[in-house]
Amino acid sequence: MDQSFSTHCTYIICCLVIAINLVYFIIITIKLFIQYQRRPATGYNHKMTDESNETTTTGSSRITTSTSKTGLERLAQLYPHVTEDTPLPSKWNSKEKAPPLALQQNNLAVTYKGPGKSHKDAASVRSDHPIPSLTGIYYYEVKIISKGRDGFMGIGLSTSEVNLNRLPGWDKGSYGYHGDDGHSFCSSGSGITYGPTFTTGDFVGCCVNFLENSCFYTLNGYNIGTSFKDIPEKCNERKLEDRNL
Questions:
Q1: According to the UniProt record, where is the region Disordered (predicted)?
Q2: How many angstroms separate the first and last alpha carbons of the chain?
Q3: In 3D, which of 133, 145, 109, 139 has the Cα closest to residue 205?
Q4: Any idea what the Cα angle at residue 153 is, between residues 147 and 158, rounded to 5°?
Q5: pLDDT, tens only, 173-200
């Protein structure tokens, strides 16, 4: 009798375990199906080919960004709410640059060809599109092909109203990290100690966090730390500036 009772209990427990696992599997399947059905459509599909980033012009300062079709498709997956109506930046804007700057490689490379003798010779270029705040967090990176004579370079963010003949961070609505001294500039001509200097061969990244209105930089893949806080939402254009021979 006891053995029969034990056998029946074991059988019932096994059935319950199987039933619970089956219900769990059905619930997971339903959740995955609902998530798939709710997946937003992505309309962002810019065509772009890879370009070489190794050419250097003697006697000038040159900086490049890199992107590819595969990279843009990946960005479209990461930022599903970004569409053709609110595209991501993909290159430098030939209509938003100072005269001393020349763009090459499908507007991914920037070369400074000015005198570079004083701050009045500064030149900058903005991205082809502002960074959509819907991205939440956006990161871009540039490679320094040549630092030029003195390494007077700056990378950062700005509003569309900021003067293109100024280094990033010097004016209101502009934020920048400078290569010659490693200082960060927050809408002021007076910088503060922030990170290392950067030079030829370095990769400098800039990450803006719209969720916290903050920004940090990377140097050769290493996070330097938060550089700016309380960045206004309208300050969402990538900016790169140079003042070198």
A1: 47-66
A2: 98
A3: 139
A4: 150
A5: 999 999 999 999 999 888 999 999 999 9
Interacting residues of 202 by C-beta distance below 8 A, sequence separation 6+? 143, 144, 219, 220
Q: Which residue from 175, 189, 178, 145 is spatially nearest to 237, judged by alpha carbons? A: 175
Calpha distance 167→122 (Å, rounded): 6
What band does 230 get if pLDDT is binned at 50, 70 and 90?
confident
Q: Where are the domains of the chain?
A: 10-35+65-228
Confidence of residue 44 (pLDDT cuts 50, 70, 90): very low
Tokens 């040549």, residue located: 146
Whether the Cβ atoms of residue 71 and residue 65 lie closer than 8 Å to each other: no
- Burial of residue 242 (CB within 10 Å: 0-12, 13-18, 19+) is buried
Homologous superfamily of the 10-35+65-228 domain (CATH): SPRY domain (2.60.120.920)
User: Chain-centre distance of CA 109, in angstroms?
Assistant: 16
